[in-house]
Write a structure and sequence with these properties.
mainly alpha, extended
Length: 189
């Protein structure tokens, strides 16, 4: 079937079709992986472990690892932060009894956090195959600097959470007492 697109772009038209097919399959895999939270994070641990073993085996690429750590720290901050910052947008959670309850909405959803982190680890893993990225540095200084940066950033984030009274984690559906679950007749007995 020869279309006008094929005639005007020649061999590039088939490249566009291949790209759209690959993108559709990639999106299909992501859609299937969305509800599999535990499996996704097991994959993350595996990729993290493989990257760590590669860097340990090569005894290098500490600058790449440091950049990866900074990127993942930025992702964690986005994951722990509310979508509407109370400092700039006003309080999103009710502060008085007559205000409407608004649930915590993350600035960076869990799935996007996982996906960006996996992509970053895969990119960093690929960078370890090019010696130009193996800049000689004294790695303990980078590690100490990253740890200090992590502690300062987390301290600021925790203070923000305490000041505006939000908790970025919820563990399952809220349950009520046994009397509420059995109905009114059971509570009267």
């Amino acid at each position: 079937m020869d279309t006008s697109l094929d005639r005007s772009f020649g061999p590039w038209a088939s490249t566009g079709r291949i790209t759209s097919t690959v993108n559709a399959r990639y999106q299909h895999i992501l859609d299937k992986a969305t509800p599999l939270v535990g499996l996704r994070w097991c994959l993350w641990v595996l990729v993290f472990f493989l990257y760590g073993v590669r860097v340990w085996y090569l005894r290098g690429f500490y600058i790449v690892t440091y950049g990866l750590g900074i990127f993942n720290l930025n992702l964690v901050i986005g994951f722990l932060s509310p979508q509407l910052d109370p400092e700039t947008e006003g309080p999103a959670l009710p502060t008085k009894g007559d205000q409407e309850f608004k649930p915590f909405v993350r600035r960076l959803p869990e799935f996007k956090f996982w996906l960006a982190s996996i992509k970053a680890f895969c990119t960093a893993f690929c960078l370890t195959f090019f010696s130009v990225f193996d800049v000689p540095v004294f790695w303990p200084i980078l590690l100490v600097y990253w740890l200090v940066l992590f502690m300062v950033t987390m301290k600021r984030q925790i203070r923000h959470m305490i000041k505006y009274r939000y908790l970025p984690f919820s563990f399952g559906k809220q349950t009520y007492g046994a009397a509420g679950a059995k109905g009114k007749g059971a509570a009267d007995k």
